[in-house]
Amino acid sequence: MSTQAPIRRNTHQVQIDHIAVGSESPVIVQSMTNTDTADAAGTAQQIKALSDAGSEMVRITVNSPEAAGKVAEIRRRLDDMGCNTPLIGDFHFNGERLLQEFPDCAKALSKYRINPGNVGKGVKGDEKFAYMIRTAAEHDKAVRIGVNWGSLDQSLAKRMMDANLASANPKSPDEVMKEALIVSALESAQKAVDLGLPENKIILSCKVSAVQDLIQVYRDLGARCRYPLHLGLTEAGMGSKGIVASTAALAVLLQEGIGDTIRISLTPEPGSPRTQEVVVGQEILQTMGLRSFTPMVTACPGCGRTTSTVFQELARDIQQYLREQMVVWRAQYPGVESLNVAVMGCVVNGPGESKLADIGISLPGTGETPVAPVYVDGQRKVTLKGDNMAAEFLAIVQEYVETHYGEGGAKRSSIRIIPIKAS
């Protein structure tokens, strides 16, 4: 982890079960299920998979009586599996009715997500919002007030557009809409406080789909409040587009100290696991030096010297192996997430990168002697050759983890916790 971490904007500290959110805590990775919440077994299994992948909170859709009626069962199933991940209830349109009709749901959730644009209009909408906030306060639950570009309160937008047209120096409609997002979040937060919800129970978000818009909105929002902020593009997209867009937006904001929880809203490719959004979120934070989640693999991109696919396959297998093992290693070997492994493809940079890593292997390139020196803590340990190099190297990695991060291990005893700075 880098010692040059960005200075975080100063925020309230929000406690959500055992998870603390705010400038005094690490940036939290969360995700959301795409199962039918009424399917308690299927939803609990997906939450467990997301949790095992590293999601520290998981949001579930609570959109119907059938869904609300299963939330308490989902919580029980997770507890039975030893999964204590906090659950966030995602409410739109009918949240107040579901919380009223299903008190077990209200209690089982650790946090409510409320979209002011979808609660309702006028006095009726105010009453619905008030009921949800008072329910959260009664049960000591946190609330994320989440404003979305696509579901902005139209009465607020119209009021601000009319005022803008009447002003001496009107702004562009786009600027007014961005301001309306921020005003909606801040006014709703103040209403919640006036209704009795403490400031340290409120998180805000203002999600849009475009990278530059997101950066501008969050800069402005962050400068005008002390609430923790949840970051994410509202619809990032599929595959590389979604990953690149999310990284481009969040990296800028995180580097400026803005953001306390993140979610990468990827559209899953057919057949791909839901956990991909968790992995991307973790990798953004880890590559920026903000947190460590899983051992990192350094691998060269390949060139004309590496016509063999051996190093590519080994890098893939090592990376997959390390991430899968973290489900167990996280508890058994504290600090192992900082492990660095190098898998290099030829003699040009191979030995040097391998020496710099905790464990590194320099595979032979085209025309090179078919042997692969392995370096451990900068020293050449063994030279591998033959068809079992991958298995032998994995065994070396496993042995290193057990001896360096296990009980009494050198790495474990020297783990340094670097405090996250707050302005």
TrEMBL record:
InterPro entries: Dihydropteroate_synth-like_sf, IspG_bac, IspG_bac-typ, IspG_C, IspG_TIM, NO2/SO3_Rdtase_4Fe4S_sf. It catalyses: (2E)-4-hydroxy-3-methylbut-2-enyl diphosphate + oxidized [flavodoxin] + H2O + 2 H(+) = 2-C-methyl-D-erythritol 2,4-cyclic diphosphate + reduced [flavodoxin]. Gene3D superfamilies: Dihydropteroate synthase-like, Sulfite Reductase Hemoprotein, domain 1. Its EC number is 1.17.7.3. It comes from the Bacteria. Pathway: Isoprenoid biosynthesis; isopentenyl diphosphate biosynthesis via DXP pathway; isopentenyl diphosphate from 1-deoxy-D-xylulose 5-phosphate: step 5/6. Residues 297-398 form the IspG C-terminal domain. [4Fe-4S] cluster binds at C300, C303, C346, E353. Converts 2C-methyl-D-erythritol 2,4-cyclodiphosphate (ME-2,4cPP) into 1-hydroxy-2-methyl-2-(E)-butenyl 4-diphosphate. Belongs to the IspG family. NCBIfam families: ispG_gcpE, PRK00366.1. This is 4-hydroxy-3-methylbut-2-en-1-yl diphosphate synthase (flavodoxin). It comes from Uruburuella testudinis.
